[in-house]
TrEMBL record:
Belongs to the TRAFAC class myosin-kinesin ATPase superfamily. Myosin family. Gene3D superfamilies: 1.10.10.820, 1.20.5.190, 1.20.58.530, 6.20.240.20, Kinesin motor domain, Myosin VI head, motor domain, U50 subdomain. Keywords: Actin-binding, ATP-binding, Motor protein, Myosin, Nucleotide-binding, Repeat. ATP binds at G104, E105, S106, G107, A108, G109, K110, T111. This is Myosin IH.
Length: 907
């Protein structure tokens, strides 16, 4: 209920008890508001109202089951799982039986609701292999019973045409160990007649559409539902929303689960087929108007499938046997009477088959253990029905609902009164409509409608439906809730036919047509069994709530929701244990927050006074507080909602401070531990280091003392250290160039020889590296410098300054003419302009001189042989030429142009 208080402004009121106004308009408005948000469940105290949404909602899954499992009934939003879980856990804690009633109009979702409850128990209860088998049988009984007991009606394509009560048996541990099913008032008349837009029971269509060819051949059936009279009266044999083939497979599988062997299954289908064949048995009149069979084919199939004699069956369908003392007389039937007998036989066969099927299912679910068990009963039965034409079936159904309404109001009032007495609260009488007067009208012994109907059925003579109506008028003419055409006033008589009677039920007026009442009440081939209405009345005495409705206005009235709400709202709308009330609302009073140290009742009294409750607004019971009006509770809840935010902020701040303080404390402790461990580790490390250092110093001193001696264990480490130290220092201070002769480190005495070897190797490596890196031109220069050094070093004064000067290939060139003269021109590059220029010499051994010179210089390309003239440089950088020509005798002279002319002999 606290959840209903929290959510009331968003999605209406989750519990009708908390409505400000208990009017029908307020109830319907609240239902509409919740239904528009796909919230189909609403509480009336412990009763739950469900509105059929006619669509799939994602609220029936394992996740939802887990949410509601073991949770307080009013803690979460209304749901059928909450009801199922509450019944289950109350049964376990109190170890007593519980009963769940599911009622509502056809199409309101009763069958689906019972399935959801069974599925919840199958998932939520403890499981073993045996228990799983029992649960499977319970779940699989639904497809079988739906096939044989459900049919399409105008309002519902899968309407249950029988009432079903299932006992689910639990052991002391809460395990489902067995089950038992009772069926009530199967609508057998549907076997032989269906209204327009309706179908026969599903199993007939499933057999014809889904049965194998071999099976249909064995049963003498054709795969065409239009061929069978009992399947075509409603003119809607094929329905798009129903898949008979798939449903047939489900039924076959379910029969296997509930342990139907092949023999029983075949017998079951043979009986179903016999009903179809029986419906195709037709009659023709003879000359006297007596009934004759049209043909024997269908009759033979019926006798073969049922295992009876065909002649006896034929005789039973066309003649009535009258026994008078020792004689038997056969009285032929008229066609109408023969059809009546045929249909009665079909209904009887199907009714007995359905009863046998239920018993067979019960055998498969029976628990053999004789130990005590607790039971949750699940009743799925018709709701109040009002049609355009209401007959015997509606009379029985509405009588059932009258009894259930009477029982439920009595139980609710009794529970309320007992709670008031237990709490010491003065009981206030509740004004509500007591329907006992209507129940007595129907069931009173010798005076009720059912008794009169039975008497009329058994009365000798020609009893008819109209004589039954006359008897009712005679017996009940003055009853305020009974009226007929003859008894009514002028205005009411216009709404009644002469064969009608009207009852004023708790849910409103219903007009019944008496046509067929006697035949349907007999429901037998001969008068040798109890009448149907009496059986049904006796069955109801054995029954000791979920109300499901469609989205139509009248059902709020037909289901008696208003009466139930008025009873629940009688006196005080809200009551809660002191501990729970104080636990929820204690933040609203400084004296009770955060902890109340006294008795809970005293704390609630202090809290109520602080909130300003008036004396007539609440009462203090022995263990509970009772609040009269929802508005008082709403004001308290609004204050609580407002207070929650402030409390949440304070609690959040406190929690954050507590959490941060705790974290800081943990971090401080951790830091201290880390610091201690680190200091200890450092101290141990320092101790070890110092011990090692002392040991090393001792060894070093001893080795230093013995350093001049031969290598031994005493000085080997010291010598190794000296060697390594020297090599490391030498590595960082090696000479960078070959010419650097002064930076080589002075070695220790023990490494003098090694140092010298390393020095030579290092310089050799540097020289080799230098030489390998010299380019050819520079190498040639060096080679020439070496030769020059060998010739002039120490012999010529100006030799040292010439060393840095490079020898140029272009500095000295040699030119000769192509003639036979001996003139040689040596070209010399002069940096000093005061020099005289190129050298001109004449040599008789020109070839020998130049050849040896080129070999010595290793430069053959330095000598050029030219024709005509050779350009030379003379003093002051001026240029001139030596011209060559031939003549009679060789000569050399200076020509007029200033050039040196050389004449050679022309050979």
């Amino acid at each position: 209920m606290e959840g209903a208080l929290t959510a009331r402004d968003r999605v209406g009121i989750q519990d009708f008890v908390l409505l400000d106004e208990t009017t029908e308009v307020a109830v319907i408005s609240n239902l509409k508001k919740r239904f528009s948000k796909d919230l189909i469940y609403t509480y009336i105290g412990t009763l739950i109202v469900s509105v059929n949404p006619y669509k799939d909602l994602d609220i029936y899954n394992k996740k939802q089951m887990d949410v509601y499992m073991g949770v307080n009934f009013f803690e979460l939003p209304p749901h059928i799982y909450a009801l199922a879980d509450n019944a289950y856990h109350t049964m376990l804690t109190e170890f007593n039986n519980h009963f769940i009633l599911i009622s509502g109009e056809s199409g309101a979702g009763k069958t689906e609701a019972s399935k959801k409850i069974l599925q919840y128990y199958a998932v939520s209860c403890p499981s073993t292999t045996l228990m799983n088998t029992v649960r499977d049988k319970m779940l699989m009984s639904n497809p079988v019973l739906e096939a044989f007991g459900n049919a399409k009606t105008l309002k519902n394509d899968n309407s249950s045409r029988f009432g079903k009560y299932m006992d689910i048996q639990f052991d002391s541990q809460g395990d489902a160990v067995g089950g038992h099913i009772l069926n009530y008032l199967l609508e057998k008349s549907r076997v032989v007649h269906q209204n327009h837009g309706e179908r026969n029971f599903h199993v007939f269509y499933q057999l014809v559409e889904g049965g194998s060819d071999d099976l249909l051949t064995q049963l003498g059936l054709e795969r065409d539902v239009q061929h069978y009279y009992y399947l075509t009266q409603g003119e809607c044999a094929i329905v798009s929303s129903i898949n008979d083939k798939n449903d047939w497979k489900s039924v076959k599988n379910a029969l296997q689960v509930i342990e139907f062997d092949e023999t029983n299954t075949n017998h079951l289908f043979r009986v179903v087929a016999s009903v179809l064949h029986l419906g195709n048995v037709h009659f023709d009149p003879d000359s006297k108007g007596h009934a004759l069979l049209k043909n024997n084919t269908e009759l033979n199939w019926v006798s073969d499938l049922l295992g009876v004699d065909a002649n006896n069956l034929k005789e039973g369908l066309t003649f009535r046997k009258i026994e008078a003392k020792t004689e038997q007389v056969l009285s032929p039937f008229t066609i109408d009477h023969a059809i009546y007998v045929r249909d009665a036989l079909a209904k009887a066969i199907y009714g007995q088959t359905f009863t046998w099927l239920v018993n067979r299912i019960n055998e498969s679910m029976e628990n053999k253990d004789s130990s005590r068990k607790t039971v949750i009963g699940l009743l799925d039965i018709y709701g109040f029905e009002v049609f355009y034409v209401n007959s015997f079936e509606q009379f029985c159904i509405n009588y059932c609902n009258e009894k259930l309404q009477q029982l439920f109001i009595q139980l609710t009032l009794k529970a309320e009164q007992e709670e008031y007495e237990a709490e010491g609260i003065e009981w206030e009488p509740v004004q509500f409509f007591n329907n006992k007067i209507i129940c007595d009208l129907v069931e009173e012994k010798h005076r009720g409608i059912i008794s009169i109907l039975d008497e009329e059925c058994l009365r000798p003579g020609d009893a008819t439906d109209l004589t039954f109506l006359d008897r009712l008028e005679e017996k009940m003419g003055n009853h305020p809730h009974f009226v007929t055409h003859r008894l009514a006033d002028k205005m009411t008589r216009k709404t009644l036919e002469r064969g009608d009677f009207r009852l004023l039920h708790y849910a409103g007026e219903v007009t019944y047509c008496v046509v067929g009442f006697l035949d349907k009440n007999n429901d037998l081939l001969y008068r040798n069994i109890k009448n149907v209405a009496t059986q049904f009345k006796n069955s109801l005495q054995k029954l000791t709530e979920i109300r499901l409705i469609q989205s139509t206005r009248h059902q709020v009235k037909y289901l008696g929701l208003m009466e139930h709400l008025r009873v629940r709202r009688a006196g005080f709308a809200y009551r809660r244990k002191y501990e729970d009330f104080l636990k929820r609302y204690k933040p609203l009073c400084p004296a009770t927050w955060p902890h109340w140290r006294g008795m809970p009742a005293d704390g609630v009294e202090v809290l109520a006074q602080h909130l300003g409750y008036l004396p007539d607004e609440y009462k203090m019971g022995r263990t509970k507080i009772f609040i009269r009006h929802p508005r008082t509770l709403y004001a308290t809840e609004d204050a609580y909602e407002k207070c929650k935010h402030d409390l949440a902020s304070k609690l959040q701040a406190k929690y954050k401070g507590y959490k941060v303080k705790g974290e800081f404390k943990k971090q401080k402790e951790a830091a201290t531990k880390i610091e201690t461990c680190w200091r200890g580790a450092q101290a141990r490390k320092e101790k070890e280091k110092r011990a090692w250092a002392v040991k090393v110093i001792k060894k070093f001193i001893k080795a230093y003392i013995n350093r001049g001696e031969a290598k031994s264990t005493d000085n080997s480490e010291y010598l190794a250290f000296v060697r390594q130290s020297y090599l490391n220092r030498l590595k960082n201070n090696l000479p960078k160039t070959v010419l650097d002769k002064t930076t080589w480190l002075t070695p220790p005495a023990v490494l003098t020889e090694a140092s010298e070897i390393l020095r030579k190797l290092h310089y050799r490596l540097m020289v080799r590296k230098y030489v390998r890196g010299i380019p050819p031109q520079k190498k040639a220069q060096l080679q020439m410098k070496v030769v020059t050094s060998a010739i002039f070093k120490g012999k010529k004064e100006n030799y040292p300054p010439s060393i840095p000067q490079l020898f140029l290939d272009t500095r000295i060139r040699i030119s000769v003419s192509s003639l036979s003269d001996g003139i040689i021109a040596i070209h010399i590059t002069c940096e000093d302009p005061k020099q005289k220029g190129d050298l001109i010499i004449q040599c008789e051994h020109l070839y020998e001189f130049l050849t040896k010179l080129s070999i010595i210089a290793n430069k053959q390309d330095a000598i050029k042989v030219v024709q005509g003239s050779i350009k030379i440089k003379i003093q002051s950088g001026k240029e001139s030429s030596v011209d060559f020509t031939t003549g009679q005798e060789p000569m050399v002279y200076k020509a007029k142009n200033g050039h040196l002319m050389v004449v050679s002999i022309n050979k």
